[in-house]
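Readers outside the structure-tokenisation community will struggle with the description of the input data as it stands. For illustration, here is how one protein appears when written out as sequence plus structure tokens:
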Amino acid sequence: MAAAARQAVPELLRLVYGESPLPKLSLDQVERVLELGVRYDMAGPPWRPGRELLADDARSASRIKCDVASIEACIPPSQDYIYTPLADPLLAFVDADKSKTEPATSESLNINLVLGSDFYGPAAIATADYGFQGYLGVPGLNDTGSDSRAAAYAYNVSWEKLPPTPAASSRAYYSAIGLSDFISIYGVAPERPADTIPIVFSQPVLPSSISPGAFRVTLNDGSVVTPLAASLNPNVEYNERQTVVVIGFFGNRLAPGTPGALFPAELEVVDVPGNPLTLIGPNGFTDATGLKAASGNPYQEGKGSRMLRAKLNAYSQLGEGAPKWLQTSTANSGSDLYGDLPGLYRLRIYNNYGFSPDGIASINPDDFGTFFYLTAIDSSGRDVQIAKMGKRYKIPGYGTVKVLGLAETGPKSRDYGPDYIEDHDNQYDVILQGSPEAVRRIHSVTLPSELTVEAAASGGKRRYRAVYNPGGPGNDPSSNPPGVPFVVPSTRQVMPVQDDITAASYVTYVEVNGTAARGPDGQPVGRLLGPAVISRRTGYTVNAYIDPSGNIFYASFPVQSACNF
């Protein structure tokens, strides 16, 4: 080790540990301190990595310190990513898209802007379950007045019972879409209210490849249906975009086995010559043609909303946000709701439908303990249940962890009342703060679904609520049309947690000024310009490229080089 480096060690240790006497470190640890010190010195705003940080709010006396092995965990989200000058076109492009207030259409979402999106495995369809029947394009459903309520009931749409709330939007009263709004958003006029199937992929979808002709739905009677529309909405944030919702006429509400029941049996991706549906994975593009999945039915007992994955990552702000016209999908991230805090982690719950307490109402940021609890394992092999927000739980042998609340709901509000509106997509984030060792001991998330369970950490037995997809009965089922089925509630589920903190399984592909050139195998082709975005916590990197026509694009996966330009 050079003499200058040795002289720097004591000061760096004081920065890291903020105390005296200084701890004894191995040579490897000293080199780690030096490496981190140089990185932080070169990477941006001055930051003292060893400053003492309040673990709770200003009233709390407990503190946490960053140690050498986990110093990245103490970086607040705003200081996580390094943006080189090569990122300038990317940042300008994202900002321009976020500022859009029009056109407020599904088609406007089909630009290739996928930024830090999760992938969950090889290219596959996780689920393609029947969503809900007859809710999209309801004639006469225009506002929150009595005529609209009558129209809702006439077309078997549930209506939420709310206290007097003059400012409440229509989405607080019903989850259906009126005919005029549907035509404006999707550009087609259904002959009757249409149905949905959310197609939940394991990887994000290349937005420009989405079209209704890419999907074939086979019903239980053998008939084949091509959807009227296919859309990223409501999975519109730049770090989502794995779920495509297809809209069409797929059946009725009779449960399988009931005489006259008509429902989707299978969904398959079919070829669209010149523009096949394409998934974006860690190694590039995958043609999704031929992928298929059987369709579950939400009108059948035990087939309600369910968790598909629970993925644990160091919290990242990369790719958060959406065009401004999609108000509930903006400013709803963990740092938007809980602040620019160090030591944040994100447990993302990926689900088949989206969740609602009753099929209309929204999940609120403070609803964690109403629907979920987490389980960690301590150094003695005992389970620790994490059931309350705001409480710091000790995981013996590893440190502490606290649930700040849920995110990817809706924007922050002073009052999460019955008129609160979330984005109703297929992701919910549990935002955690704590030591990385303790956080990584979380092994499962439970959705008890109205079962009374023993939750010792919360002080005994407690009752949890079920969730529904957005075709549920609402909070006033007695007012619904008699005899009309609505989707069933969830049942008890336990989902193992995937520790993705080290792997950082995200993917990025963004075209900022035109479609990038493609090689014979359909992969983008370009010359590497260099790194544009680098995470200090995980090392996740997005590179900038230029294609033979001068189009700039960005990718986190290796891109084929192009010669002679």
Remarks:
- The longest helix spans residues 27-43.
